Amino acid sequence: MPNVGDPAPDFSLVANDGQTYSLSQFRGKNHVVLVFYPGDDTPTCTAQLCDYRDGWEDFRQLDAVILGVSTNDLTAHKKFAEKYSFPFPLLEDPGNQLCKAYGVLMLGGLLPVANRAVFIIDKQGIIRYRHVEMLPIFKRSRTELLAALRQIAA
């Protein structure tokens, strides 16, 4: 798992909106809030992503973009994003390569899922904040993430 201060592993993945997103496309322009979550349209994940949706303008004012990642496919991402009007993309991670690169893939149960985790990557591609939940029922609030972004931007 990459640590704070490490270069963030790059990626190029398709999202629910049909576009391909790569970490490198934001270099020099935006901070990236990379949000790993266990599953689309589940209670805690929905509450977490709706909290970020409701603070979308605050994130944008800090030159930040949010990218959501789970082990769900594009069909599930599209339904989830449309149902809750998420203004940020949900990336499909075929083969769970991004989850593996960030060390957040959990292999318990019937199917592998992403552990709930947030990485904030600065405009130079360096990880400046990392939080991986010990229990998937907990989540980072937008207030905490916005405070971390303000500190990074200072």
Can you tell me about this structure?
By secondary structure, the protein is of the alpha/beta class. It has one domain (30-153): Glutaredoxin. 30% of the residues lie in helices and 24% in strands. It has helices at 43-54, 56-61, 74-84, 97-101, 142-153; strands spanning 12-14, 20-22, 31-36, 64-70, 90-92, 105-106, 113-114, 117-121, 127-132. The chain has a 5-stranded mixed sheet. A two-stranded antiparallel ribbon has the order 1-2. The chain is globular and about 45 Å long. The two termini are 26 Å apart. Residues 2-154 form the Thioredoxin domain. It holds the Pfam family AhpC-TSA. The active site is at residue 45.
Q: What is the name of the CATH class?
A: Alpha Beta
Poorly predicted regions are none
Structural class: alpha/beta
Q: How much helix, percentage-wise, in residues? A: 25-40%
Please tally the β strands and state the result: 9
